[in-house]
Write a structure and sequence with these properties.
6-stranded parallel β-sheet, 2 domains, about 15% strand, 7-stranded parallel β-sheet, alpha/beta
Length: about 350
């Protein structure tokens, strides 16, 4: 059995839980049992809705060391093969205490310190440039991106999807589970003012921690559609002409669908990701919503560039496909199980 220690709430949003759920689904498909541990009830509904068992630690997610007595007791009880931890709050002391009982994998973005764990996973596009210290096993790069199973093996659908985009033009806007700087609203307002983009419908995916977007829908009339709780994001994505997205795991999903994307950031841990995508000319980066007063206008300028340069847009679609991220969750789950088997043999 593989365990997951992860949280979601209004402050840290749901990205950590979503990527752990994708890995868990892939493990289940390989006949491996999984179990989630969360600090409080904020994330329990999201996890249990996917059919996974979840245990609540009734702890403070910002003070992980305080939960160690109850977590260690549960780890002894359930006798896991490995615990995968996805949290920026954990300390070296925390990881060492857990590792004394069970093998530990850490899902990393930041290389904050030399993690005392057995396995480090970093699927970021810049992961191979970090220079991690030796002494443990690493699974690095977009090939291990933990995408939801709906994104598996999309390559055979992309040709027909790209043709569909030419006829049914649309722009997808997604900010993740939250949008504290109202980027979606600002971007919609700018698109509606841009005559060159008048043929495009606007689809806004509203996250579970986002503000009300009723006024946005009213301003756009029939051109704007607000969606929430999407069952099949892959199908929605690959039919869109362009996308606007914050710099989280959604960028890898958009690569699986080969949708030319304009990125922006609004938290520090997104910065290196969006900058590297731009550096490798896979996506266009519009800026940081915390500091760019006219972020909506900057995003639309990038969308216009895509609209006016179809040949360059095709080149970006090709680079997205070449990342090979669609089967990342399965590849990652197989690598985790192979590691466990090797260490137990």
């Amino acid at each position: 059995m593989i365990g997951f220690r992860v949280d979601a709430n209004e402050k840290i949003a749901s990205g950590h839980v979503m990527r752990c759920l994708a890995i868990a689904d892939a493990l289940i498909s390989l006949q491996e049992d999984v179990l989630f541990f969360v600090s409080d009830r904020a994330a329990m509904k999201m996890i249990s809705a996917r059919g996974h068992r979840v245990e609540c630690l009734n702890s403070d997610w910002q003070e992980p060391e305080s939960e160690l007595p109850i977590l260690l007791r549960m780890l002894r009880r359930f006798r896991l093969d490995m615990l995968l931890i996805d949290s920026y709050q954990v300390t070296s002391l925390y990881l060492e205490a857990v590792r004394a009982i069970v093998k530990v994998a850490y899902l990393d973005d930041l290389n904050a310190f030399d993690y005392p764990v057995d396995l480090v996973i970093n699927y970021s596009i810049y992961a191979d440039k970090i220079g991690y210290p030796a002494g443990k096993v690493y699974l690095l790069g977009p090939a291990y991106a933990p995408l939801r199973k709906q994104f598996f093996s999309l390559q055979n659908k992309l040709s027909s999807a790209i043709e569909y985009r030419k006829k049914e033009k649309s722009i997808l806007i997604t900010t993740g589970s939250s949008d504290p700087y109202h980027v979606a609203e600002k971007t919609v307002e700018e698109i509606l003012e841009m005559e060159d983009l008048c043929e495009y419908k606007i689809i806004v995916v509203k996250g579970c921690f986002c503000y009300d977007l009723t006024t946005v829908e009213q301003k756009g009339s029939r051109r704007v559609k607000i969606l929430m709780n999407i069952d099949n994001m892959a199908e929605l994505m690959y039919k869109c002409s362009f996308a606007v997205s914050a710099g989280g795991s959604t960028l890898y999903e958009l690569c699986a669908c080969a949708v030319p994307t304009v990125t922006f950031s609004f938290v520090d841990n997104q910065m290196r990701n969006v900058e590297e995508f731009a550096k490798q000319r896979i996506m266009e980066y519009a800026g940081d919503a915390r500091t760019e007063e006219f972020i909506g206008r900057l995003i639309v300028q990038k969308l216009l560039w895509y609209h006016r340069n179809p040949d360059r847009t095709k080149e970006m679609e090709r680079r997205m496909r070449e990342l090979g991220v669609a089967d990342g969750s399965k590849r990652l789950a197989e690598a985790i199980l192979a590691y466990i088997r090797e260490r137990n043999s």
